[in-house]
Amino acid sequence: MSGFLAHIASPSDRAHAPALGDLDPLDEAAMLAVIARAELHDSECFEQTLAEARAGLTGTEYRAYEAGLVHLGTFAGSSESYGNDDDANPAAPDAVWIFDDARWITWEAKSEATATGEIGPENIRQAQGHLRYTEAERKASAPSGSIALLMSPKPKIMAAARMLANDETYLVRPPTVLEVFDRLIRSWRTARARTITVLSIAELADIFRAEQALPSQWLPLLKSAPVKRL
User: What is the pLDDT of residues 20-56, one digit of tens each?
Assistant: First the structure.
């Protein structure tokens, strides 16, 4: 009986939980993907994936960092999250997050760059070419609002690099990536404690919303530094 009662929402819970129709399509796509990630519902797999992601994203070695970004995309609710297995192909993104037809996010990660000096034009060209590459690879147009992210610890951007930047390219710092990671992991831990498979999409979204971990909440953080206007 106690297990049954634990899953009955109180009037205040029902009033607080968003109706499914009120969810942003991107948030809905992410919550559906979280529910579908059956492998991460397993405690051992979840903890191992979390540990690999954290180790990669707190370090600088580029292969581990890129793998961390791929894991981060999975935690973020992307329906597909994959990396670049061909180091000789600079046109390929280091990570791609696909949120069905709602949004694509591509990453160029300069995790081994020093925290001094300036970001040059070549880094900008490389990062903002990733959406076009992904379109060609997938033989589809990127959904409206798709973005290209350049992760770099360098403190400045060369004026010539800013002049080349388009409106879809954003600079992200390592601490910002970790902030998104921590929000997502807190949400996953709460959702797993309540058993993800018995939660409705709206209930799951409410858990992620409480940690500012819905895509509509962490995207503004990743988009806070548009290269063109820095």
Answer: 458 999 999 999 999 999 999 999 999 999 999 999 9
- Is there a domain that residue 6 lies in? no
121 lies in a domain? yes
pTM of the model: 0.89
Q: Is residue 2 part of a domain?
A: no
Q: What is the CATH number of the domain that holds 114?
A: 3.40.91
The per-residue pLDDT for range 61-78, each reduced to its tens digit, is: 999 999 999 999 999 999
Sign for the CA dihedral angle at 83, 110, 51, 219 comes to: negative
Core vs surface per residue 92-119: b (16+ CB within 10 A) or e: bbbbbbbbbebbbbbbbbbbebeeeeeb
**How many structural domains is the chain composed of?**
1
